[in-house]
Each structure stands twice: as C-alpha cells, then as structure tokens.
Design a protein that fits this description.
It is a single chain. By secondary structure, this protein is mostly helical. The protein has one domain. It is built from 8 helices and no strands. The radius of gyration is 29 Å and the shape is elongated. About 0% of the residues have low confidence.
C-alpha cells in the first residue's frame, strides 16, 4: 500500500469517528428531550447548552461526511472545506463550554456578582426556582456556583475536551498531509505531458512536374 493510500485510510477512519461523535451528541440531546414532560419545555429557550450541543452534533456529522467524500474521491475542494470547518469548530467547542458554564438552570444561581446591581432590581425569571413565585429566588451567585460546578466536573470536562480536540486536530493534520500528497501526485502526473509534448508531424510537400 502506497503512502497516499495509507493516509487516505487513516483520514477516512478519523472521519468515521467524527460521524460517531456527532451522532452521539445528537443522541444525547434526544435522550434528554425524551426525559422532558413535553417538547414545549425544550423549546422554552432555557436549555442553552443542549441547543449548542445539538447544533454542534449536526455540524460534526456534516464535517465527517465532507471528509469522507474528500478522502474517497481525492477532492481538493472538499479537503480544503474540511480544514476550514474543523478549525472553526475548535473555536465553537470553546463557546459551547462557556455556554455550559452559564446554564443557570443547572447552576441554580442568579447573576454573576451582584443580583440587584446587574438587573436593576428586577431579576429575570431564570433567577427563580418558580417563575410565578418571586420569593423562590436563587440566593447563590453564579460566580461562586460556576467555580464549584467546574471543580466538581473537571475530570469529565477535561476528558471530553481532550478527546474532541485530539480527534479534530489530528484529522486536520491528516487532511493537510492528504491534500499535499494529492496535489503533489497531480503535479507529477502533469509533468511528463509538459516535458514531452507531442511532436507535429512533418508536412509532405507535393512536387508538380518532373525532376531532372
């Protein structure tokens, strides 16, 4: 097996893992949705982390599909699109982590450092255990709750982020290597045609009359 084929196989395997990660994220959100009493609760706008994870799941599936197509067909356009989308996804992952930290319904907190100062005396409904009962406001601040929540789940977050970053970075490296090899092979295949152009056939002159 040539070096190009080995890189192709490795690249396709990592894109299959990409598809698996995307489907896992979508399945996780779907499982959470099945635990809710009705779909209107999910559409209420309070599940920021779940919305972000669902969107990233679809994007990961799309990236994995583009990568598989690019690897199987040796399409330089698909590979370039894969590199760009993977790079953007790395920054999106960071945004999802931040969104997860700011999920008030999980942290059970209100405001970041000072409830009254931040909300001008009128906290939003997310600051209450029960939006209809104004006496059920969360007394803990999000700043402290975030610290406790992150400290308690550092191993989980570290593992998830490490795996996702490893797969994305390694896939990007493989796609760059594959793109370079494909472009190199294309240049090599075009070189003989340029160095040995077809010679024009000699013109045959017609002589009229007799030669003495």
């Amino acid at each position: 097996m040539s070096a190009l084929k080995r890189v192709k196989v490795a690249f396709i395997i990592f894109n299959v893992l990409f598809l698996g990660l995307g489907l896992t994220a979508i399945g996780y959100v779907a499982w959470n949705l099945s635990q809710l009493p009705n779909s209107s609760v999910f559409l209420s706008g309070k599940f920021i982390f779940s919305y972000s994870l669902l969107g990233i799941g679809f994007v990961i599936c799309l990236i994995g599909l583009i990568g598989c197509i690019g690897g199987l067909s040796s399409s330089t356009c698909c590979l370039k699109a894969f590199i760009a989308m993977t790079t953007i996804l790395l920054f999106v992952d960071i945004g999802v982590v931040i969104a997860g930290y700011m999920e008030q319904s999980q942290l059970q907190c209100c405001a970041f450092s000072n409830t009254i100062a931040e909300y001008s005396g009128t906290p939003p409904p997310s600051c209450y255990k029960d939006a209809k009962n104004t006496s059920s406001i969360y007394v803990s601040l999000c700043k402290e709750s975030m610290k406790d929540w992150v400290k308690g789940k550092i191993p989980i977050w570290a593992s998830v982020i490490a795996v996702a970053a490893f797969v994305q970075i390694l896939s990007s490296i493989l796609s760059c290597v594959l793109l370079t090899k494909i472009q190199s092979s294309m240049r090599v295949s075009q070189a003989p045609a340029e160095s040995n152009p077809s010679r024009p056939r000699p013109r045959q002159s017609k002589h009229n009359g007799l030669n003495f």
